[in-house]
Amino acid sequence: MRRAGSFYEQVGGEDTFRRLVHAFYQGVRSDGPLRALYPEEELTAAEDRLRMFLEQYWGGPTTYGDTRGHPRLRMRHAPFHVDSDARDRWLTHMRAAVDSLDLAPMHEAVLWDYLERAAHSLVNRPG
Questions:
Q1: Which of 33, 102, 114, 126 has its CA 20 to 30 A from that of 79?
Q2: What's the pLDDT band for 126 if we cut at 50, 70, 90?
Q3: Which helix (H) or strand (E) holds 20?
Q4: How far apart are CA 14 and CA 4, in angstroms?
Q5: Domains identified in the chain and CATH numbers
Q6: Rounded-to-integer distance, Cα 21 and Cα 50, Å
Q7: Is 4's pLDDT higher than 70?
């Protein structure tokens, strides 16, 4: 269920989040160290999960929660070596993806603030 007037709707809904996440994973595909965090997995599945998570977080469909339950971001990322280098690489590709959307400055700032805080919160290893 979508919330009327939600951030999700304000920025263009599903199309915007599909473009954001696809652009992000294009960067991941070309980044050896970051790509290594997905050793056995087809990135399409990861792309779908991130898109569904972000859509739900920002007021769009609840598909993520309906299929995967509570996000539990720190727990889901605990098995992966997320250090400052991985965080910075993630942020580099996500910054390029956000910039590709040409959002209104207010929307871009709100989205980026969340993504940056989330990336910092998932660091679970020194280095």
A1: 114
A2: confident
A3: helix 13-29
A4: 14
A5: 7-121 (1.10.490.10)
A6: 7
A7: no
